[in-house]
Amino acid sequence: MTSTKTGHSFGIDIGGSGIKGAEVDLNTGEFVGERLKIATPKQSTPEAVAKIVAQIVAEKEWSGPVGITLPSVVKEQKVLTAANIDKSWIGVDAQELFAQYLDQAFVVLNDADAAGLAEVAFGDEVARTASVIFLTLGTGIGSAFLLDGQLFPNTELGHMMVGDAEAEHQASSAVKEREGLKYKQWVKRLNKVLAEYEKLFNPHAFIIGGGISRKWDKWGELVGIDTPVAPAQLRNRAGIVGAAMAAQQNLRP
Ligand code: BGC
């Protein structure tokens, strides 16, 4: 096994479609070597997912601490929700679970919280400034509340009711794909969601991450609320980088 290098850590991002892991250089926020991605098992049960996490760590020959994200509320290392993964995650003690599969120390945290932390460390200055709502648009909508770069963990804005449905059921990028929406149609829905968040939380800025933020040049100019909205800088690296940061800091929300 490779020994852990100073300033290096390892992050694993568990998503609805893939489980991705990479060694991260925490001085730069860059991956060291290739990212390894394995498809999320159809039945994304805790055991099936934990096995793949262990496989990624083994294949990458990593022996130091590991950070693991889940698309769930994770409070004191207990998984409390499971909106886009198998429902059997609810109530799981993440430390007990992963300890059966990993030999090293690890921390588990919400995926959007991890991505928000990475953006604070390696993204645009705006992420470290005043009050920011960071959103990831993917299978669901994840959120991280940031105040002067500090995280208020486990906010779940994707599940806020906007009109008569949850925000993520109207404006996630998965919904855009599923319903075959054009950018214009989809951003109209996103604007409605952002306007509601703006009305209730009045942040200084929103930052939008998730895969679709890579296409910002196609739809960014259609976003129309009063608060500034910026695309995330880390794009799809954010979850893994944030997880790796959390592992190094032994952050256990
Ligand atoms: C989950 C959040 C997660 C988000 C993005 C939501 O459905 O409830 O915990 O951060 O999806 O994956």
From TrEMBL:
Entry-linked Pfam families: ROK
Superkingdom, taxonomy of origin: Bacteria
Xref: InterPro entries: ATPase_NBD, ROK
Record-linked CDD domains: ASKHA_NBD_ROK_PPGK
Family of the protein in this entry: Belongs to the ROK (NagC/XylR) family.
NCBIfam families: PolPhglucPhase
PANTHER family: POLYPHOSPHATE GLUCOKINASE, ROK (REPRESSOR, ORF, KINASE) FAMILY
Protein name: ROK family protein
